[in-house]
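Costars domain-containing protein
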Amino acid sequence: MNVEEEVGRLREEIKRLGKLQSDGSYKMNEQNVGLDCVVKVTFGTLFHDDQCANIFEALVGTLRAAKKRKVLTYEGELLLQGVHDNVEITLNPTPAAAAAN
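Structure:
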């Protein structure tokens, strides 16, 4: 799997682990409605998820690549398990979805 494919898979996994909020954004732990809006999940949720562990050989590297491509945002440069489990990762809307709003 190349970097672009991994970033795409990461986007889908963040959506899977997110939940819809009353303001139209997502947070973790409730079923998604399938909208392409702001999605948030903690690093700990991603890191400890079995499905993510099976997909991503280097989750931190994939997160850094996605951040560099402005697919998502989070505080800091390097996320470490345990220390940064509560850091919120925000999935940015796709350019097509942002243009529609």
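Strands lie at 18-20, 26-28, 39-42, 72-73, 88-91.
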